[in-house]
Write a structure and sequence with these properties.
The protein has one domain (4-20, 77-331): TIM Barrel. Helix content is 45%, strand content 9%. It contains 16 helices and nine strands. It has helices spanning 4-15, 17-24, 33-37, 40-45, 51-73, 105-117, 125-133, 153-165, 188-193, 207-215, 235-253, 274-282, 316-323, 329-342, 344-354, 364-372, and strands spanning 82-86, 88-89, 102-103, 121-122, 142-149, 169-173, 219-223, 259-260, 308-309. Strands 1, 4, 5, 6, 7, 8 and 9 form a seven-stranded parallel beta sheet that branches. A two-stranded parallel sheet has the order 2-3. Helix 8 (153-165) links the parallel strand 5 (142-149) and strand 6. Helix 6 runs parallel beside helix 8, helix 6 packs across helix 13 (316-323) and helix 11 packs parallel to helix 12 (274-282). The longest helix has 23 residues, at 51-73. Bound molecules: zinc ion. Zinc ion is lined by residues 148-149, 224, 228, 263, 388.
Protein backbone atom coordinates (compact mmCIF):
# COMPACT_ATOMS: atom_id res chain seq x y z
CA UNK A 1 0.00 0.00 0.00
CA UNK A 2 1.36 3.42 -0.95
CA UNK A 3 1.70 5.88 1.85
CA UNK A 4 0.66 9.49 1.35
CA UNK A 5 4.25 10.57 0.86
CA UNK A 6 4.60 8.38 -2.22
CA UNK A 7 2.39 10.67 -4.26
CA UNK A 8 4.31 13.75 -3.11
CA UNK A 9 7.60 12.17 -4.08
CA UNK A 10 6.41 10.84 -7.39
CA UNK A 11 4.99 14.17 -8.53
CA UNK A 12 7.93 16.22 -7.35
CA UNK A 13 10.36 13.80 -8.94
CA UNK A 14 8.61 14.24 -12.26
CA UNK A 15 8.70 18.03 -12.02
CA UNK A 16 12.35 18.02 -11.00
CA UNK A 17 13.58 15.56 -13.60
CA UNK A 18 15.65 18.12 -15.57
CA UNK A 19 17.42 19.20 -12.41
CA UNK A 20 18.19 15.57 -11.62
CA UNK A 21 19.69 15.12 -15.03
CA UNK A 22 21.79 18.23 -14.48
CA UNK A 23 22.98 16.80 -11.19
CA UNK A 24 23.93 13.57 -12.91
CA UNK A 25 26.52 15.35 -14.99
CA UNK A 26 28.39 16.59 -11.95
CA UNK A 27 30.35 13.46 -11.38
CA UNK A 28 30.93 12.36 -14.93
CA UNK A 29 34.23 10.72 -15.73
CA UNK A 30 34.92 13.12 -18.58
CA UNK A 31 38.55 14.25 -18.44
CA UNK A 32 39.10 17.69 -17.00
CA UNK A 33 41.23 19.78 -19.36
CA UNK A 34 42.73 21.62 -16.39
CA UNK A 35 44.06 18.43 -14.83
CA UNK A 36 45.34 17.17 -18.18
CA UNK A 37 47.69 20.07 -18.80
CA UNK A 38 49.43 19.79 -15.44
CA UNK A 39 52.33 21.85 -14.16
CA UNK A 40 56.00 21.54 -13.48
CA UNK A 41 55.58 20.09 -9.99
CA UNK A 42 53.10 17.51 -11.19
CA UNK A 43 55.34 16.39 -14.04
CA UNK A 44 58.22 16.07 -11.62
CA UNK A 45 56.14 13.88 -9.31
CA UNK A 46 54.21 12.11 -12.07
CA UNK A 47 55.49 8.59 -11.30
CA UNK A 48 53.96 8.84 -7.82
CA UNK A 49 51.10 11.20 -8.49
CA UNK A 50 47.38 10.63 -8.69
CA UNK A 51 44.91 13.27 -7.53
CA UNK A 52 43.23 11.04 -4.96
CA UNK A 53 46.39 9.60 -3.42
CA UNK A 54 47.87 13.08 -3.07
CA UNK A 55 44.74 14.48 -1.42
CA UNK A 56 44.45 11.47 0.89
CA UNK A 57 48.11 11.61 1.84
CA UNK A 58 47.81 15.32 2.63
CA UNK A 59 44.68 14.76 4.72
CA UNK A 60 46.23 11.82 6.53
CA UNK A 61 49.36 13.81 7.32
CA UNK A 62 47.32 16.78 8.48
CA UNK A 63 45.30 14.52 10.78
CA UNK A 64 48.43 13.01 12.35
CA UNK A 65 50.10 16.39 12.77
CA UNK A 66 46.94 17.85 14.34
CA UNK A 67 46.81 14.93 16.76
CA UNK A 68 50.36 15.61 17.93
CA UNK A 69 49.58 19.30 18.44
CA UNK A 70 46.42 18.40 20.35
CA UNK A 71 48.34 16.07 22.67
CA UNK A 72 51.06 18.64 23.24
CA UNK A 73 48.94 21.71 23.81
CA UNK A 74 45.39 20.49 24.56
CA UNK A 75 42.10 21.80 23.24
CA UNK A 76 41.93 25.26 21.69
CA UNK A 77 38.22 25.11 20.88
CA UNK A 78 37.30 27.45 23.78
CA UNK A 79 33.63 26.52 23.87
CA UNK A 80 33.16 26.40 20.10
CA UNK A 81 30.83 23.78 18.63
CA UNK A 82 32.26 21.13 16.33
CA UNK A 83 30.11 19.26 13.85
CA UNK A 84 31.09 15.98 12.15
CA UNK A 85 29.88 14.97 8.70
CA UNK A 86 29.46 11.35 7.70
CA UNK A 87 28.00 10.02 4.48
CA UNK A 88 28.12 6.25 4.01
CA UNK A 89 28.67 3.68 6.80
CA UNK A 90 29.34 0.50 4.89
CA UNK A 91 31.50 -2.61 5.06
CA UNK A 92 34.33 -3.12 2.59
CA UNK A 93 33.85 -5.71 -0.13
CA UNK A 94 36.86 -7.71 -1.32
CA UNK A 95 37.82 -6.77 -4.86
CA UNK A 96 35.77 -3.56 -4.85
CA UNK A 97 37.52 -0.23 -4.28
CA UNK A 98 36.34 1.66 -1.22
CA UNK A 99 34.06 4.57 -2.05
CA UNK A 100 35.42 8.06 -1.51
CA UNK A 101 33.14 8.91 1.38
CA UNK A 102 32.77 5.90 3.62
CA UNK A 103 33.52 4.80 7.16
CA UNK A 104 33.18 1.12 8.04
CA UNK A 105 30.62 0.28 10.77
CA UNK A 106 33.30 -1.02 13.13
CA UNK A 107 35.43 2.10 12.75
CA UNK A 108 32.34 4.27 13.14
CA UNK A 109 31.59 2.62 16.48
CA UNK A 110 35.18 3.07 17.68
CA UNK A 111 35.17 6.72 16.59
CA UNK A 112 31.99 7.60 18.44
CA UNK A 113 32.85 5.56 21.55
CA UNK A 114 36.33 7.10 21.58
CA UNK A 115 34.96 10.64 21.41
CA UNK A 116 32.59 9.90 24.30
CA UNK A 117 35.50 8.49 26.31
CA UNK A 118 37.43 11.72 25.66
CA UNK A 119 34.70 13.72 27.33
CA UNK A 120 32.80 15.03 24.31
CA UNK A 121 29.03 15.36 24.68
CA UNK A 122 27.07 14.68 21.50
CA UNK A 123 23.87 16.70 21.34
CA UNK A 124 21.12 16.94 18.69
CA UNK A 125 21.60 19.82 16.23
CA UNK A 126 18.03 21.04 16.73
CA UNK A 127 18.45 21.09 20.50
CA UNK A 128 21.66 23.13 20.26
CA UNK A 129 20.01 25.65 17.92
CA UNK A 130 16.97 25.96 20.19
CA UNK A 131 19.13 26.52 23.28
CA UNK A 132 21.17 29.17 21.48
CA UNK A 133 18.00 30.88 20.25
CA UNK A 134 16.81 31.06 23.88
CA UNK A 135 20.14 32.59 24.90
CA UNK A 136 21.24 29.53 26.88
CA UNK A 137 24.88 28.53 27.16
CA UNK A 138 26.19 25.43 25.42
CA UNK A 139 28.48 23.32 27.65
CA UNK A 140 32.12 22.95 26.56
CA UNK A 141 33.02 19.95 24.40
CA UNK A 142 29.57 19.84 22.85
CA UNK A 143 29.68 18.28 19.40
CA UNK A 144 27.10 17.30 16.79
CA UNK A 145 27.00 14.26 14.48
CA UNK A 146 25.46 14.55 11.02
CA UNK A 147 24.99 12.31 7.97
CA UNK A 148 24.57 13.73 4.46
CA UNK A 149 22.47 12.45 1.54
CA UNK A 150 20.47 9.74 3.35
CA UNK A 151 22.13 6.41 2.51
CA UNK A 152 20.23 3.29 3.55
CA UNK A 153 23.27 2.09 5.49
CA UNK A 154 22.67 4.87 8.01
CA UNK A 155 19.64 2.83 9.07
CA UNK A 156 21.26 -0.62 8.88
CA UNK A 157 24.79 0.14 10.11
CA UNK A 158 24.94 3.51 11.90
CA UNK A 159 21.64 3.61 13.72
CA UNK A 160 22.26 0.42 15.77
CA UNK A 161 25.54 1.95 16.99
CA UNK A 162 23.86 5.25 17.81
CA UNK A 163 21.18 3.38 19.75
CA UNK A 164 23.74 1.30 21.63
CA UNK A 165 25.74 4.38 22.63
CA UNK A 166 22.63 6.59 23.04
CA UNK A 167 24.01 9.18 20.63
CA UNK A 168 21.74 11.57 18.72
CA UNK A 169 22.39 12.53 15.10
CA UNK A 170 20.92 14.48 12.21
CA UNK A 171 20.44 12.92 8.76
CA UNK A 172 20.28 15.46 5.93
CA UNK A 173 18.16 13.96 3.17
CA UNK A 174 17.86 14.75 -0.51
CA UNK A 175 14.15 14.08 -0.59
CA UNK A 176 13.85 13.30 -4.32
CA UNK A 177 15.64 10.03 -3.57
CA UNK A 178 13.50 8.90 -0.63
CA UNK A 179 12.24 5.35 -1.33
CA UNK A 180 14.25 5.14 -4.55
CA UNK A 181 15.81 1.79 -5.38
CA UNK A 182 18.44 3.19 -7.71
CA UNK A 183 21.70 4.76 -6.50
CA UNK A 184 22.05 8.50 -6.05
CA UNK A 185 22.91 10.06 -9.40
CA UNK A 186 25.95 11.72 -7.85
CA UNK A 187 27.36 8.35 -6.74
CA UNK A 188 29.40 6.87 -9.63
CA UNK A 189 30.95 4.29 -7.28
CA UNK A 190 27.53 2.72 -6.78
CA UNK A 191 26.78 2.70 -10.49
CA UNK A 192 30.10 1.02 -11.23
CA UNK A 193 29.85 -1.68 -8.54
CA UNK A 194 26.09 -2.10 -8.23
CA UNK A 195 26.14 -5.89 -8.60
CA UNK A 196 28.97 -6.54 -6.16
CA UNK A 197 28.16 -4.50 -3.06
CA UNK A 198 25.42 -4.63 -0.40
CA UNK A 199 22.24 -2.90 -1.50
CA UNK A 200 22.13 -0.60 1.51
CA UNK A 201 25.62 0.73 0.72
CA UNK A 202 24.15 2.72 -2.17
CA UNK A 203 20.35 2.68 -1.90
CA UNK A 204 18.71 5.76 -0.34
CA UNK A 205 16.72 5.55 2.89
CA UNK A 206 13.04 4.71 2.74
CA UNK A 207 10.23 6.73 4.29
CA UNK A 208 9.49 3.84 6.68
CA UNK A 209 13.12 3.67 7.84
CA UNK A 210 13.22 7.41 8.40
CA UNK A 211 9.97 7.36 10.33
CA UNK A 212 11.22 4.58 12.59
CA UNK A 213 14.45 6.46 13.35
CA UNK A 214 12.64 9.76 13.98
CA UNK A 215 10.15 8.06 16.31
CA UNK A 216 13.05 6.68 18.35
CA UNK A 217 13.84 10.26 19.40
CA UNK A 218 17.53 9.87 18.59
CA UNK A 219 17.47 10.85 14.95
CA UNK A 220 16.52 14.21 13.48
CA UNK A 221 15.97 14.67 9.77
CA UNK A 222 17.13 17.76 7.92
CA UNK A 223 17.00 19.04 4.36
CA UNK A 224 19.83 18.56 1.86
CA UNK A 225 17.82 20.10 -1.00
CA UNK A 226 15.38 17.99 -3.01
CA UNK A 227 17.54 17.00 -5.98
CA UNK A 228 21.09 17.51 -4.68
CA UNK A 229 21.86 19.67 -7.71
CA UNK A 230 24.60 22.16 -8.50
CA UNK A 231 22.94 25.48 -7.65
CA UNK A 232 25.90 27.80 -8.12
CA UNK A 233 24.58 31.04 -9.61
CA UNK A 234 20.98 29.73 -9.53
CA UNK A 235 19.62 31.03 -6.27
CA UNK A 236 15.99 31.06 -7.48
CA UNK A 237 16.14 27.42 -8.55
CA UNK A 238 17.91 26.59 -5.30
CA UNK A 239 15.22 28.30 -3.22
CA UNK A 240 12.45 26.41 -5.02
CA UNK A 241 14.26 23.07 -4.75
CA UNK A 242 15.02 23.51 -1.06
CA UNK A 243 11.43 24.59 -0.38
CA UNK A 244 10.23 21.34 -1.98
CA UNK A 245 12.51 19.40 0.33
CA UNK A 246 11.35 21.31 3.41
CA UNK A 247 7.70 20.80 2.47
CA UNK A 248 8.17 17.05 2.04
CA UNK A 249 9.97 16.70 5.36
CA UNK A 250 7.20 18.61 7.13
CA UNK A 251 4.41 16.67 5.41
CA UNK A 252 5.91 13.21 5.81
CA UNK A 253 7.57 13.46 9.20
CA UNK A 254 5.81 16.34 10.92
CA UNK A 255 9.00 18.29 11.55
CA UNK A 256 8.27 21.55 13.39
CA UNK A 257 11.67 23.03 12.47
CA UNK A 258 13.85 21.95 9.57
CA UNK A 259 17.63 22.17 9.61
CA UNK A 260 19.61 22.31 6.38
CA UNK A 261 23.04 21.38 5.02
CA UNK A 262 24.27 22.48 1.58
CA UNK A 263 24.93 19.75 -1.02
CA UNK A 264 28.60 19.70 -2.07
CA UNK A 265 29.01 22.16 0.80
CA UNK A 266 32.22 23.97 -0.13
CA UNK A 267 32.24 27.78 -0.02
CA UNK A 268 35.64 27.94 -1.74
CA UNK A 269 34.14 26.23 -4.80
CA UNK A 270 31.04 28.41 -4.88
CA UNK A 271 28.56 25.80 -3.59
CA UNK A 272 27.88 28.08 -0.61
CA UNK A 273 27.52 31.82 -1.21
CA UNK A 274 25.80 34.87 0.26
CA UNK A 275 23.09 34.60 -2.42
CA UNK A 276 22.39 30.94 -1.64
CA UNK A 277 22.40 31.59 2.11
CA UNK A 278 19.86 34.41 1.62
CA UNK A 279 17.72 32.06 -0.48
CA UNK A 280 17.93 29.38 2.20
CA UNK A 281 16.64 31.83 4.83
CA UNK A 282 13.52 32.38 2.69
CA UNK A 283 12.52 28.73 3.08
CA UNK A 284 12.30 28.91 6.87
CA UNK A 285 15.14 26.49 7.64
CA UNK A 286 16.89 27.08 10.95
CA UNK A 287 20.51 26.79 9.81
CA UNK A 288 22.60 26.29 6.69
CA UNK A 289 25.68 24.15 7.23
CA UNK A 290 28.63 23.99 4.87
CA UNK A 291 31.56 21.56 4.85
CA UNK A 292 34.07 24.32 5.54
CA UNK A 293 36.31 22.72 8.14
CA UNK A 294 35.95 25.04 11.09
CA UNK A 295 34.57 25.22 14.60
CA UNK A 296 31.48 27.32 15.22
CA UNK A 297 31.26 29.99 17.88
CA UNK A 298 27.94 29.82 19.77
CA UNK A 299 27.25 33.51 19.09
CA UNK A 300 27.85 33.17 15.33
CA UNK A 301 25.14 32.92 12.68
CA UNK A 302 24.16 29.23 12.20
CA UNK A 303 23.74 29.97 8.49
CA UNK A 304 27.54 30.24 8.34
CA UNK A 305 28.46 27.18 10.39
CA UNK A 306 30.94 24.68 9.02
CA UNK A 307 31.55 20.98 9.59
CA UNK A 308 34.42 18.49 9.58
CA UNK A 309 34.22 15.66 7.07
CA UNK A 310 35.08 12.33 8.66
CA UNK A 311 37.65 10.53 6.51
CA UNK A 312 37.83 6.72 6.21
CA UNK A 313 41.11 6.58 8.19
CA UNK A 314 40.03 8.89 11.01
CA UNK A 315 40.15 7.54 14.54
CA UNK A 316 39.00 9.09 17.81
CA UNK A 317 42.36 10.85 18.20
CA UNK A 318 42.31 12.57 14.80
CA UNK A 319 38.64 13.46 15.19
CA UNK A 320 39.36 14.83 18.64
CA UNK A 321 42.14 16.98 17.15
CA UNK A 322 39.72 18.33 14.55
CA UNK A 323 37.06 19.06 17.16
CA UNK A 324 39.61 20.65 19.51
CA UNK A 325 40.54 23.22 16.89
CA UNK A 326 43.82 21.86 15.52
CA UNK A 327 42.73 21.26 11.94
CA UNK A 328 41.74 24.71 10.63
CA UNK A 329 45.04 25.29 8.88
CA UNK A 330 44.91 22.02 6.92
CA UNK A 331 42.41 23.02 4.19
CA UNK A 332 44.38 26.19 3.39
CA UNK A 333 47.61 24.20 3.17
CA UNK A 334 45.87 21.57 1.06
CA UNK A 335 44.60 24.17 -1.41
CA UNK A 336 48.08 25.67 -1.69
CA UNK A 337 49.66 22.26 -2.37
CA UNK A 338 46.96 21.48 -4.91
CA UNK A 339 47.61 24.79 -6.64
CA UNK A 340 51.35 24.19 -6.73
CA UNK A 341 50.85 20.74 -8.21
CA UNK A 342 48.64 22.12 -10.95
CA UNK A 343 50.99 25.01 -11.70
CA UNK A 344 48.15 27.51 -11.29
CA UNK A 345 49.65 29.33 -8.30
CA UNK A 346 52.76 30.31 -10.20
CA UNK A 347 50.67 31.46 -13.15
CA UNK A 348 48.42 33.45 -10.83
CA UNK A 349 51.36 35.22 -9.24
CA UNK A 350 52.89 36.06 -12.64
CA UNK A 351 49.61 37.45 -13.96
CA UNK A 352 49.00 39.41 -10.77
CA UNK A 353 52.54 40.83 -10.79
CA UNK A 354 52.62 41.80 -14.45
CA UNK A 355 48.97 42.60 -15.05
CA UNK A 356 49.11 40.34 -18.08
CA UNK A 357 50.93 43.05 -20.10
CA UNK A 358 52.36 40.55 -22.59
CA UNK A 359 48.99 39.70 -24.07
CA UNK A 360 46.33 41.88 -25.59
CA UNK A 361 43.57 40.26 -23.59
CA UNK A 362 43.38 37.80 -20.75
CA UNK A 363 41.38 34.62 -21.07
CA UNK A 364 38.28 34.02 -18.95
CA UNK A 365 40.34 31.44 -17.12
CA UNK A 366 42.99 34.02 -16.26
CA UNK A 367 40.37 36.49 -15.09
CA UNK A 368 39.06 33.73 -12.85
CA UNK A 369 42.55 33.16 -11.51
CA UNK A 370 42.90 36.82 -10.67
CA UNK A 371 39.46 37.10 -9.14
CA UNK A 372 39.33 33.89 -7.15
CA UNK A 373 42.98 33.22 -6.33
CA UNK A 374 43.42 29.48 -6.69
CA UNK A 375 39.88 28.47 -5.86
CA UNK A 376 38.17 28.40 -9.24
CA UNK A 377 34.79 26.71 -8.85
CA UNK A 378 34.83 23.31 -10.50
CA UNK A 379 32.19 20.60 -10.42
CA UNK A 380 33.26 18.03 -7.87
CA UNK A 381 34.80 14.93 -9.36
CA UNK A 382 34.28 11.55 -7.78
CA UNK A 383 37.98 10.84 -8.04
CA UNK A 384 39.19 13.95 -6.28
CA UNK A 385 36.29 15.47 -4.38
CA UNK A 386 34.78 13.43 -1.59
CA UNK A 387 32.57 16.17 -0.17
CA UNK A 388 29.11 15.54 -1.45
ZN1 LIG B 1 25.35 15.52 -0.26
Amino acid sequence: MRNKCDSVNASTLRTKAPALRAGASLNSHAPNPRTQCGGFCRKLLMPFYTPQTTVNLAKHTAGCFSTVLNRLFGSRSAGAIGILTYHRISTMVAGVPEPAVNVTPDRFRRQIAGLLNRGFTIRPLGNVLERLARGEAIPPQTIIVTFDDGYGCVYTNAWPVLQELNVPATVFISTAYLDAERPFQFDPWATAHLDHVPVDSYRPLTTVQCREMVESGLIELGAHTHTHGDFRGRSDAFCSDLQTSVDILRACFGLPAVTFAFPYGRPDMGFVSDELIAAARQTGVTCALSTEMKLNQPQSDPFTWGRFNVDPWDNASTLSAKLDGWYGWAPKLGRTVKCLLSGRCLKTKIIAATGGWWRSETTPQDRGLLGHRCAIPQPPSASTEPSI
